[in-house]
Amino acid sequence: MAAQDPNRVVATIGGKQITAKEALELLKPLNPEDRKRFESNLSGVVQQLYMTEQLSEEASKLKLDQQSPWKEQLALARANILTQAYLAKQASTAPVPGAEDPKAYFDSHTADYEQIKLSGILVAFSPPGTPAGPGVVQRTEAQAQEKANDLEKKIKGGGDFAALARTDSDQQQTSVRGGDMGTFTMGDPNIPSAIKTAVTKLQPGQVSEPVRVQGGFFIFKLDNRTTLNFDQARPSIAQKLQTDKNQAALKQEMDKYKLDVRDPDFFNIAKTPSLMAPPSAAPSASPAQKPAVTKPPSN
Q1: 104-227 placed in CATH 3.10.50.40
Q2: 109/79 Cα distance (integer angstroms)
């Protein structure tokens, strides 16, 4: 729309008309991943970006950018952005042995591109000493395990998994769907190893033994299992290989600037967070550039 009719008025903010071209210019700082993530709330994103732009201009008029601590924070934000840009540039040209052929990677990691659709029942517990309050499960770990074992027996004895999920699962967002947790890819690094081990053994329709996770026990039902073909997996493989390049570029630079600590007490090493993060596949805006956009709820 911005290309075909750039002067078309698409919104008004505070009485000012916003054209398609102006709205697109406001969205430019967002990387493609963020645009896709917020595509269902673009009007809210444009509003916040416009407000951020206007307020930053007002701050400049007041010369706040020349006062502490804002002056130093702006300098740090600029340095962070340029660091990310430099690392992304290095990563785009740095070869990673064995990570240049997506098809070869797919052939040697086929299991990572197996997709599973899961349903689950969570029986939660609270650690000793947890204060009572709204939404806090007053159940010990032993009590949770006992209940999970009873549920497993009921299900394997013919009980309706979806019905039990609705009445007994402590995971509210999935219990209302009969335990439906959606589809996952086995290569997802965010899936805990204990869960991967449990569901790998299952055939469609089978139910796992209770799996201990942080704060509870999960009973999983494998609804179905499929494997992506190479064309389907190609985008995630490209992202994975780019991430490997990013990590290699970051490690190379970190090795060059390794700090030799002579006084651990001064640095308080155990409590000092890192200011650097690996570059994304495409350079993204720093926190100082991004608007405070709330992620829309998933359907």
Answers
A1: yes
A2: 38
